[in-house]
Write a structure and sequence with these properties.
Elements lengths: L10 H16 L4 H4 L2 H17 L9 H9 L1 H27 L4 H27 L5 H12 L5 H12 L15 H26 L10 H47 L26 H6 L6 H6 L21 H8 L2 H25 L4
């Protein structure tokens, strides 16, 4: 791996943030204050470091370099290592929540911190893994998603979102003017049902019942139930409630990122009503160096949707993709303030959609 690629190790700094909070509490800082340290770092310090670190616009220079980077096993091992790190961290966070005296403010801060880090270490890493061929990486991704109670993402994302992205039929593509809070509520309720329907349809085509262990959704939910029972045995009701709640926060974090990635973008339809092919023009792109290290280049989302099987280390920056004004850490906070979000993003949506209309009219297709 090149020296600059060692930046991907910063994901493990994120994993250390709850441990830093615990050390602060042990050192005498009020628990109700120290519990918020991870959120301060992720949504306060990281955006500032993004500004200082600038953007990474370089791409692999030729196909040979792409193939060389794709073959380097170190990049894969980094994502694989995130699963045991996350499971160990989740265990620690549950235990600390049940044992450390904290007021309501501290409990809320600890819960939100754990859930947001779960969105980074569990869901974001799972997103990278479930797109890959073979059985191992999708299996690791499924375990990570199950640990936050959102295993349906594995099915809905691959067979639903990537098919219908940037159309009204995609729950994970926010419409222009839609509130992030409405979007989160719809995603958390509709996407699991969509995943079940997609899996039931797959089994139906094979002549199998949806209520059988052939159903991937059922298998993952049985694993989640086993995790829940184990948590109840070891940590009681308080730990069990925390385990469930951190999953809701992690899934909500994912939905905010979905909101950011596709807000307002729509694919054009031809005279027959068919949507144009998905390209790098149908997802928002960001190239802030630090946040791309932390998120395994999730911000190069435009290229991901154009080439879903590409590994994170070779995702490309496209200057003609719609560009976010800041990295995901800053945009996350902005999305939670709908009037400010619309003031900044709606003009960008309108400009890009107008440009897309020109491209579509110039290339009407077959």
């Amino acid at each position: 791996m090149r020296l600059r690629d060692l930046g991907y190790l910063t994901v493990f700094i994120t994993a250390s943030l709850p441990l830093q909070s615990a050390c602060m509490m042990r050192a005498g800082m009020p628990a109700d204050l120290a519990a918020w340290w991870p959120l301060l770092v992720i949504f306060g310090i990281v955006p500032l470091l993004d500004l200082a670190g600038g953007r990474e616009l370089r791409n692999p220079i030729d196909p040979a370099e792409v193939q060389r980077l794709e073959r380097q096993r170190g990049f894969r091992l980094l994502t694989w290592a995130c699963l045991p790190v996350w499971l160990g961290l989740l265990t620690f966070c549950i235990a600390w929540f049940t044992l450390m005296p904290m007021g309501i403010a501290g409990q809320v801060g600890w819960l939100l911190s754990t859930g947001v880090i779960g969105g980074i270490l569990a869901i974001n890493v799972a997103h990278e893994l479930i797109h890959k061929a073979g059985w191992l990486e999708p299996w690791l991704g499924g375990i990570a998603l199950t640990s936050v109670g959102y295993p349906g993402f594995k099915i809905e994302h691959l067979r639903g979102h990537h098919v219908h992205v940037s159309t009204p039929g995609d729950t994970s593509s926010a419409a222009r003017g839609e509130s992030v809070y409405r979007f989160i509520a719809r995603g958390l309720t509709v996407n699991p049902r969509t995943a079940w329907q997609l899996e039931a349809e797959r089994l139906g085509r094979r002549g199998r019942s949806a209520w059988s262990l052939h159903n991937e959704m059922l298998r993952w939910w049985l694993l989640w139930l086993a995790m829940l029972v184990l948590t109840a045995v070891l940590c009681g009701f308080t730990g069990t409630a925390f385990f469930v709640a951190q999953g809701v926060v992690a899934a909500s974090t994912l939905e905010v990122i979905n909101y950011i990635e596709h807000y307002g973008l729509r694919r054009a339809r031809d005279a027959q009503g068919r949507y144009e092919r998905v390209t790098h023009l149908h997802s928002w792109n960001a190239s802030e160096r630090l946040t791309n290290w932390l998120l395994f280049q999730l911000q190069r989302h435009s290229d991901h949707h154009a080439h879903a099987r590409r590994r994170y280390q070779v995702l490309l920056h496209h200057p003609d993709s719609p560009q976010l004004p800041a990295g995901y850490a800053a945009m996350f906070v902005l999305a939670l303030i709908p009037p400010l979000w619309r003031k900044i993003m709606d003009p960008r949506v309108d400009r890009h959609q107008a440009a897309l209309a020109l491209v579509s009219s110039a290339n009407p297709g077959p």
